[in-house]
Write a structure and sequence with these properties.
Layout: E1 23-26, E2 37-42, E3 57-59, H1 63-71, E4 80-84, H2 93-112, E5 116-120, H3 132-141, H4 146-159
Length: 168
Amino acid sequence: MAKLLNIDVIGGPFEDRTHTDIIYRLEQRPPRMTDYRYLVVANNLEELGSSSFLPNLVVAKDFEKTKSFIKKKKHKSGIAIEVLLSDIRFQEGFKVGKWFREISELYRFSKRADCQFILSSGAHSIWEMTSAQCFESIMRICKIPPRAYWEELEEWLILHDIPRFIHV
C-alpha cells in the first residue's frame, strides 16, 4: 500500500519491538536511555507549562495561540510546530480555505521564530495516509517550497537524533 501511495515510511502501533529506521512519537521521555529513535510530542500548549517537560515538537491546533506562545518564548529553541492534515479532512470549504491561509502564515512565522514547521497527515489508520504528491501539492498552494521543506526537515531530524543507546 505504501508503494501505491508513494510513501517511503509509514507509521504503526508499537509492538514491543523497535526498529532502527523508525522514529517513534512519545508523550514523555523514557526514564532511561533507549536503543530506538524518538521525538517527544506535546499534543497541546497546556502541556508546555511545566518547566520539566521539554518536547521536540508541539501539535498546533489553534494557530493564533501557538504563535502567541512562541512569541512569548515559552519554548525551547528549535522546537517544531506540527500541523495535521486530519484536522481539515471533513471541514466545510470556507474553513479549508482559511486553514490554507493560516498554514502559509504559520510556515513564514516558524521560519522567523527559529522553529521547524512540520506538515503531517495525522493518520490513525492506513486509510488516512497521504501521498507525497498530495503533500507537495498542499505545500505549493501554501507557498512552501517542497524541496526546501524536506531538506530543512531532514536537517532538523538529524539535530534531534541524539544517541539514546542502553548498550554501548
